[in-house]
Amino acid sequence: MHSETSNVLVGLGIASTTLFFGVLVAYALEARTNLPPTVRLAAGLAAAVALAAVGYWFVLGYDAVA
Amino acid sequence: MTLYSTVGASGASTPLRIFVAYAAGAAAAEVAGLAGGAFAATIGYGALLLVLAAHAAMSVVKTGPLATVPAAAPFIAVGVPAMLRFSTLTLEGSPSAVVRHYGVVGIPAFLALTTAWVSFPELRPRRVPQVDRTTVFIAAWGLPVGLLFAPAFTRASLVPEHGRWRSVVLVVVILVAAAIIEELLFRGVVQTSLREFVGPYAPLVGTAALIPAYLNVRPVGFVFVALFTGCATALAVELVGAIRGVILARIVFLVGLVVFWPRVLGLP
Predict the structure, then answer these.
(1) CA B150 remoteness from chain centre
(2) Nearest to residue B192, comparing CAs of B116, B251, B129, B141?
(3) What are phi and psi of B216, to 5 degrees?
(4) What is the pLDDT of residue B26?
């Protein structure tokens, strides 16, 4: 696969999964806190970015471990 | 908030129409994958998740063109299976071993389970106070069912040998990801949310939604294992109304498949 195309795919993957998990966490914050809606979404997205970093570390590190 | 809290505001049929539209999008991504390969399917699922998540984000902050359109229930019922399928498409350049599949899918599945569990109490499986005969009966079925599939696999194809202790860790990863997280997420959260849209067909639709996430797992026979055990456990949860028995059955099934039956039958 062409590297530029691959970069687009990676970008699409990071953007969509981060937004997806950010919204999931925002829903959880809505159930448990009284934070303003924008703050809930921002906190959710921040948590999702952190999780994406851990996830990519796991994926990239698997071959080295195995 | 509750999962279907906006149903009354927009009319009873609106959430169903939204659900059907997103499910059609997921089906279109699979068709694109059949016609144009994994690349096309990845683009399709990525776009679907972006639209679905953006829609849900608008409903969270209550601004934007889709802010008043019900999003939470379709987000769980379609978005969770689509996200797991998307994970396998983007993170796997080639067919993956079973244990790696569970490692890659297990993390997003765990987060989806915990956040949905916290957000929507109505999706949590019913608690049964004590282990009854039905639970034991369902759990025991895991062992003979494992015998049906054991000859189709080698132990190395399921859990690659990396030394005794590392193999034990890998078996535990599969047990936690497949037997606990996957059952709670699909038979608990997703199947319950689907029931609102497809009624008694929720077990079949939920199983069908799960299967695409397995399509690039090797050995190929594991896809059939996932289909068979998925259908059986989904129907058992629907009939019994509790999930503990099928989680135990899945643990017994996997331990039998990986550890017990290969030793008894002398398989490689």
Answers:
(1) 22
(2) B116
(3) -105, 20
(4) 94
- Under 8 Å between Cβ of B237 and B204: no
Per-residue model confidence (pLDDT) at position B208? 87
pLDDT exceeds cutoff 70 at B12: no
Q: Which helix (H) or strand (E) holds B6?
A: none
In sequence order, the 6+-apart residues with CB closer than 8 A to the CB of A51 are: A21, B107, B111
**What is the distance in angstroms between the Cα of B228 and the nearest Cα belonging to chain A?**
29
pLDDT, position A65: 46
Average pLDDT value for residue range B164-190: 82
Pick the residue from chain A with its C-alpha nearest to B2: A31
Distance from the Cα of B18 to chain A's closest Cα (Å) equals 17
pTM of the predicted protein model: 0.82
Q: Which of B265, B267, B256, B263 is nearest to B144 (CA)?
A: B256
From the list B203, B245, B211, the residue with the least C-alpha distance to B227 is: B211
The burial of B232, by beta-carbon neighbours within 10 Å (0-12 exposed, 13-18 middle, 19 or more buried), is given as: buried
Q: Does B154 touch chain A (CB under 8 A)?
A: no
The predicted pLDDT at position A20 comes to 92
Tell me, what's the ipTM? 0.81
For residue B100, the Cα-to-chain-centroid distance in whole angstroms is 16
pLDDT at B96: 60
- CA B132 – CA B126 distance, rounded (Å): 14
For A6, name the nearest residue in chain B, comparing CA atoms only: B39
**Closest listed residue to residue B119, CA positions, set B51, B58, B200, B189:** B189
Q: Which amino acid is at B77?
A: A
User: Residue B161 is which amino acid?
Assistant: E
Phi-psi region of B131 (alpha: psi -120 to 50; beta: other; left: phi over 0): beta
- What is d(CA A10, CA B100) in angstroms, rounded to the nearest whole number? 19
Q: How confident is the model at residue B229 (pLDDT cuts 50, 70, 90)?
A: confident
Alpha helices per DSSP H over A1-66:
3-32, 37-65
